[in-house]
Design goal:
The protein has 203 residues and is of the alpha/beta class. It has a single domain, classed as Spore Coat Polysaccharide Biosynthesis Protein SpsA, Chain A. The protein has 7 helices and 9 strands. It has helices at residues 42-50, 65-69, 86-96, 116-127, 152-160, 166-172, 192-202, and strands at residues 10-16, 36-37, 40-41, 56-61, 75-76, 101-106, 131-136, 139-148, 176-180. A 7-stranded mixed β-sheet has the order 5-4-1-6-8-7-9, with helices on both faces. It has a two-stranded antiparallel sheet with strand order 2-3. The longest helix is centred in the middle third of the chain and has 12 residues, at 116-127. It starts with 9 loop residues before the first strand and ends with a helix.
Length: 203
């Protein structure tokens, strides 16, 4: 996956640390990963798809930690305070992981591809790149990315300077973009209406 050679060990980080303001009726925020879809919390669907692709799973959550622990995986909160976004979750996961690489997936995207990690890893190895990120259709999907943990210090500095934009940090490290054919696989569920539509479609 890098100039030093590929690594087969990858830790999956399920990002569930956001505020979820669009999901709540009053905009105050709600824990999206714990919202039910087809009789199970959304995060359960994400874990089910990601776990077979990785060597370990970590869940990044800043609220309801006990509820997330019930899924049987370690739960870690952001090291950077103030709900600093998905990069803060990536940073926490990189510090906690015991593998050389991590891959991220958000808790509200239950249809992520079964070959997500394999395709990202192959692209990173081919390009000797420390980051591989999904592009689907004409859109970058920056919360779906494979990242080398050796970049944790760089990310810590970027966040400490008040930066939050994922794609700008990726560009600093010549991230390789990996085309996926099905943009629908990366849809996320942000609102109650979207959740109801997906629920109806599953039925």
């Amino acid at each position: 996956m890098s100039a030093s050679g590929p690594s087969t060990a990858v830790t999956g980080i399920v990002l569930a640390g956001g505020l979820g303001r669009r999901m709540s009726a009053d905009g105050s925020g709600i824990d999206k990963g714990l919202q039910p879809l087809a009789g199970r919390p959304m995060v359960a669907h994400v874990i089910e798809r990601l776990a077979p692709q990785v060597d370990a799973i970590l869940v990044n959550a800043n609220r309801n930690v006990a509820a997330y622990r019930q899924f049987g995986y370690p739960v870690l909160s952001d090291v950077i305070p103030g709900f600093a976004g998905p990069l803060a979750g990536l940073h926490a996961g990189m510090l906690a992981a015991t593998t050389a690489w991590v891959v991220t997936a958000p808790c509200d995207s239950p249809y992520l591809p079964h070959d997500l990690v394999a395709r990202l890893a192959a692209a990173a190895a081919a390009a000797s790149a420390p980051i591989a990120v999904v592009r689907a259709g004409d859109r970058l999907q920056p919360v779906f990315a494979l990242v080398e943990c050796s970049l944790s210090a760089s990310l810590a500095g970027y966040l400490a300077d008040g930066n939050r934009k994922i794609d700008l940090w990726y560009r600093q490290h010549a991230a390789v973009e990996v085309e996926f054919p099905d943009p629908a696989a990366f849809r996320n569920i942000n609102t109650r209406d979207e959740l109801a539509r997906y629920e109806q479609g599953l039925r």
